[in-house]
Design a protein that fits this description.
Length: 58
């Protein structure tokens, strides 16, 4: 079977960069990790954010 768009193996990072609504706003577009919507760098940042949020709530 031919797959013209191998989305699963070459998904790009959807980490937002800049402020939404501004011309500078864009997505990271680095190669995303398997089973994650972000690249290695931004997946790490996302996990840190969740951890910080928990500490704030406690
Ligand atoms: Zn990224």
């Amino acid at each position: 079977m031919v797959r013209p768009f191998p989305r699963v193996s070459t998904r790009s990072c959807c980490w937002p960069i800049g402020e939404p609504g501004t011309p500078e706003f864009r997505f990271c577009s680095a190669e995303a990790m398997p089973a994650k919507p972000y690249c290695t760098e931004h997946a790490a940042v996302a996990y840190v954010r969740v951890r910080d949020r928990r500490e704030d709530a406690a």
